[in-house]
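Exercise 3.2. Students should predict the tertiary structure of the chain below and write it as structure tokens, then compare their answer with the key that follows.

Predict this chain's 3D structure.
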Amino acid sequence: MKIFVSGMPGVGKTTLILKVSEALKSREWRIGGIITQEVRERGKRVGFKIIALDTREEGILAWEGFNGPKVGKYGVNLRDLEEIGVKAVERAIDDADLIIIDEIGAMELKSRKFGEVVEKALKSDKHLLAAVHRRLTQKYSKYGMLYILTRENRERVLSEILEFFNKPT
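Answer key:
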């Protein structure tokens, strides 16, 4: 099963993914892949970090003014994206029951290697849960089920996703 979630910033995509991850871990699922999280200083977003779910290794995905490929005011750190993110997804393809990719968006796709590992995850027989930037939903929804997350539906969506992964394969 390949499931994609999208929605406006701050609606809870990462939170939903982490809740699914924790619930499935409690059922002895092996979870791998990445999450990204905002970094704020004095209430203002200044960048994003990337975290490998299996090793907990952290790096900088993008930062204001960073000297890397630009997405808006952020420069993308291809080194951390590839050394932490791509490798974590590769390990998940090999070893996990569920591959998590949070998120597939403009920043992450600045890396050719990241795009390639996403394609590999899509073609694998492993379960996948990915957050997809709202401008990319049409491209990825053909691979599986797409949820557009809102504050109003996020608890129902969480229950539905857990139910899908609870079914025998």
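Discussion points: The two ends are 8 Å apart (CA to CA). The chain has five helices and nine strands.
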